[in-house]
Amino acid sequence: MMSLNKRMLLSASLVLAIFITLTAITLDRAFRESALSAREDRLLGQLYMLIASAEVDAQGHLTLPSTLSEPRLNLPDSGLYAYITDSSGTPIWHSPSVVSTQAPFLNKLSAGDNRFEERKNPDGHSFLVQSLGVNWSVANSRHGFTFSVSENLTEFNSLINHYRRNLWGWLAGLGFLLLLAQVAALRWGLKPLRQVTQEISAIESGQQEKLLGSYPSEIKHLSDNINSLLQHEHAQQKRYRNGLADVAHSLKTPLAVVRGALSGTEKKEAFHALLEEQISRMDNIVAYQLQRAATAGASKLSAPIHIKPIAEKIIGALSKVHFDKNISTQLIISDDLTFRGDEGDLMELLGNLIENACKWCHSQIKITGVLQDKLLVITIEDDGPGIAPSQIELILQRGVRADQSVPGHGIGLAIVRDILQAYQGEIQIGRSDLGGASISLHLPASY
């Protein structure tokens, strides 16, 4: 595919070429029309001078001086010619500039009629012809004449061609300068994109971990998204590595217990019970670490997810599990409240907390979701026994593992804590107005 720079340069060149061509055509036509109008006015003025020089006697004979006021009319084949015809169209006079071999441009016009036209003689030469019909009143009689002045177009065409050469030359030079300016502008304008490309290459080669440049507002959003994606990917890889290390570390104790039991003298029933206990423990450890590693984390590229339908789905499923309690659930979440992240993470957060609330409540659960100071706050409350302050400190303690969690609020809250860390959020545990536990999730409303 053609590069962005070449595509923009080609587009600009085409637009510039079209613009210059249209400009040249417009200016050429305007100049020609202006020059033609000036020639018409000049020929008409020469006609008036010719008429002013003419005299008509009582018999209607028209005479003009032997030397005319316009010098070119006195020079043979000068390019400017004059003719006079009578009312019948018969030529009665021509200027000294007309040679005998030239066919006159004869017009027969009524008095007051004026005609300006371009005509060709039998030799194929083009002329501008200005004609005017007049009536001469002498001794109570009227005599009609048509005065005509023609000019060879050779000089006029030479003037037009000279103007065209200059016009196209100047416009071509201007177009070339504009094209150079466009190239420079494109290089300057696309410099941030080239910088982004160079930084991405540096990231691929391991020289840097994210985009560090300062970019214009049009590209800043792109660079921020790329950095967010890179940060998300690095965090995910770190979670995978930490998860594997934690699995290996956490499995050491139950494996050591099983190994010790194999070399001990326990009875078969006791050994089976011990083995089942340690297998269950290892299963919980693996499930917990897999969930930690699978946490997607915050990303600007995540689509917003409506919270209320997810909460309703979880409540519906858990109400069937705990149908014997006949739990009354209040769901106070607006329809347009959203969570920007992974849907699986949201279900894990709400699922663990609502399941704990269902497990420990007597008969009431309250779930609320609001936006507070650019924070998404989701609170799950129950009317159960609550959580003792000593247990709260243990649950919120950094580095608590699945096999160290408080019973009843152990692996579930540990998973919730790790998911919140991935989203740069926090958890707050306290006493609910219902009498039981109140667990609040605080998440950035946007990333």
Automatic annotation (TrEMBL):
Residues 187-238 form the HAMP domain. Pfam families: HATPase_c (PF02518). SMART domains: HATPase_c. Keywords: ATP-binding, Kinase, Membrane, Nucleotide-binding, Phosphoprotein, Transferase, Transmembrane, Transmembrane helix, Two-component regulatory system. Gene3D superfamilies: 1.10.287.130, Histidine kinase-like ATPase, C-terminal domain. It catalyses: ATP + protein L-histidine = ADP + protein N-phospho-L-histidine. GO terms for molecular function: ATP binding; phosphorelay sensor kinase activity. Its main location: membrane. It comes from the Bacteria. GO terms for cellular component: plasma membrane. This is histidine kinase. Its EC number is 2.7.13.3. It comes from Sulfurirhabdus autotrophica. It is found in: Membrane. The chain crosses the membrane at residues 167-186. The keyword Transferase applies. It is an enzyme of class 2 (transferase). Residues 246-447 form the Histidine kinase domain.
